[in-house]
Amino acid sequence: MATNADLIVVGGGLAGCEAAWQAARRGLRVALYEMRPLKSTQAHTSGQLAEIVCSNSFGSDQRNKPAGLLKAELRHLNSFILRCAEDARLPAGGALAVDREVFSRTVTERLGNIPGVEIVLQEVTQIPQSPCIIASGPLTSPGLSDAIAQLLGHQFLFFYDAIAPIVEFDSIDMTKVFWASRYDNHEDSPGDYLNCPMTEKEYTRFITELINAKKVALRSFDAPADPAAAGKKKGYFEACLPVEVLAARDLQALSYGPLRPVGIFNPRDGSRPYAVLQLRQENLAKSLFNLVGFQTNLTYAEQDRVFRLVPGLENAVFTRYGQMHRNTYINSPGRLLPTMQYALRADLFFAGQITGVEGYTGNVASGLLAGINANLLLRGKEPLTLPRETMLGALMHYVANADAANFQPMKANFGLLPDLDRQIRSKHDKKYTFAKRALKTLDLFILEQQID
Question: What average pLDDT score do residues 105-124 get?
Answer without folding.
Answer: 94
